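Hello K.,

You asked for the raw outputs rather than the summary table, so here they are, unedited. I folded two proteins back to back in the same session to keep the settings identical. This is the first:
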Amino acid sequence: MSSEPLAADYQTLIDNSQSLIIASCAENGAALASYAPFLAFENAFYVYLSQLAQHTANMLRHRQASIMFIEPEADAHNAFARRRLVLDCTVDEIARQHSAYEQLLDQMQNRLGDTLGVLRSLPDFHLLALTPSSGQYVAGFGKAFILKLDNGVLLPLTP
């Protein structure tokens, strides 16, 4: 699989998703799996999370997370070979006073609906940018690719 069809293939996973799966690490080292709706914008994935959620504290403490996009089971030909994209990310908080804060939330609300309008009024929510640094894409049996980040675009490593 050449890099262009490969990139289009994993971009389809992202484009067809409204939420992403998050893996974070608790203070005691325990792993936590969770999910959040997201906005993909300028080479980052933005999530708006309550500080009451354990994954928020984990990501703010460690400033890293792993995220996954995965083919729906109903669309997969084989449960063992679902297409999936896993990205290692750095985590940065976007402060409420940051110039892009309101614009990013407006875009999220346009994409995800009016529930975000309600959440915006709550003081315990944090806007986090998850910026990929590397990852892996599995397109099926024997079709695993290590991805590197080059100028904001994930590219497969060539042999």
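The second followed immediately with the same parameters:
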Amino acid sequence: MKLCVFQGTFNPIHNAHLRVAEFVMDKYNFDKILFIPAYNPPHKNCDIDMSVHRYNMVKLALKTYDNIEVSDIEYKRKGVSYTYLTICELIKKYNIKDEKISFIIGTDAFEKIESWYEADKLKKLVHFIVFVRENNYIPQKLEKLREKGYDFVIESLAFEDISSTELRENIKNNISVKNLVSKKVEEYIYQHGLYKN
């Protein structure tokens, strides 16, 4: 199975996340792209009480897609959401033998990949699809990772890079997020009074 994973906090999921997934599916023709909301991300302070809402919003955002779906794998496991453990579980679940799982990631996170849990084991299991996220991105930094055995391609996609942090601020300050998140996600946010504090 040709599987791709898009893991993150998705706090909340927004249109740039969806455009990245659409681009990847169109270009690489995966059998499946799995959005995996982190239950308890190791590199971010995240309110665990929000985890179910984050999962529900991803599920709503993906309702209209074929072959792009949400996975609750990290919710079932609970605890800290380490990517290496998730990838190992997916290899077993989908009986993946001879190919790597592809993994969508931004340059900002990929530059810190060596600090991730079991990074040396993870790099043998994953092919990274790295999206350029910031203007100060330095290609030489990433080439050093290639020399260390990380397998990746770099993609740049012309789209408005939406920040989840800014989205939360807008909601808190009653600024519309209408064109930044899907209609169902927007309705869910206001229905549950999220990001108001």
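The domain at 3-161 is CATH 3.40.50.620 (Rossmann fold).

Happy to rerun anything if the numbers look odd on your end.

Regards,
P.
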